[in-house]
Amino acid sequence: MLDVAWSVDELARTRLAFSPLWEIVASAGVLQHPGEHALHLPWVKQASAALDEAGVDVTPLAGLMAGRHVPRFLAPAPASPVPELADELADLRDVPARAVRRELERMDPPWPAALTRLHRDPEAGLERLANLMERYWAVALAPAWPRMRALLEGDVLHRSRLLADGAVQDLFADLAPAVQWADGALTVAGRRVNAPGASHGRGLVLAPSVFVWPRVVSRTHAGSQPVLRYPARGLAGLWEAGGTQAPAALRGVLGRSRSILLAALATPADSAALARRTGLKAAVVAKHLELLATAGLLTTTPDGVHVRTAAADELVAATG
């Protein structure tokens, strides 16, 4: 349960970021319990086969995810909006031994052998863990990272625009069904997040995630920003290829391909992700994205993520 007073000052310090390290941790939990994460079963099937073929043993990582308490050193607040995995792993390797032992001692016994070894020699254990994460990432997540990253960046762009516009109600409106904002109060699963008069001056980190679904996870720690991790917008279509539909009225105005692309951009994405979502050829996607941009219906970030403009949002809404 978070303890944040939602003053104007706190909102000014609220930021958005995502974390490759967290996706490693959360995805390991998905592999442990795939039945609880049906949306990710296409990824589970591919990743499990790839890990088996590569001989990557995720048992030590799974042991850290086995209990109710996930050690803080595995899920820190992202230090920047788009952190690099190499930087996060460097920070993991530098976690003090006393902090590692303190977090492990909060986990329920009996401990698996990997946790006992980590507790006995945290420095060597963190090096082994970081190396395992690097191998796991390369085999299980790196192939899917471009589409995952486009989805996460799209969520950050969308909510950053809302935050900049001061639309706090809209910022929290579709985070997750469990998250509600009303009368200046933020609640998660019916429990109040803000505590009037208890402002800590650090704001909140809103962190979209792929593998947190279907849950919302909050974390507080003395001296650092609270973190609220939630499923990224458009997650339902992440592992799908083709099949995007557009309203008939929109097709009548823009034509089939451009209307399908605008509909697919309900969540910002790069060109490759749009081709997968819509089933359109890459050359067709490129041609019609250029026409939509010329018409003022989309913009493109320096990283190549395409975003519908406000005018496009109104056009799509008006045509159903």
List keywords for this structure.
15 helices; disordered N terminus; 320 residues; three-stranded antiparallel β-sheet; four-stranded mixed β-sheet
Q: How would you sum up this structure, described in words?
A:
By secondary structure, the protein is α/β, with parallel strands linked by helices. Helices cover 48% and strands 10% of the residues. It has helices at 8-12, 20-32, 41-54, 59-64, 85-93, 97-104, 113-120, 122-141, 145-164, 168-173, 248-254, 256-264, 271-278, 282-294, 310-318; strands spanning 15-16, 179-182, 185-188, 191-192, 205-209, 217-219, 227-231, 298-300, 306-308. A four-stranded mixed sheet has the order 1-5-7-6. A hairpin with a 2-residue loop joins strand 3 (185-188) and strand 4. The radius of gyration is 21 Å and the shape is globular.
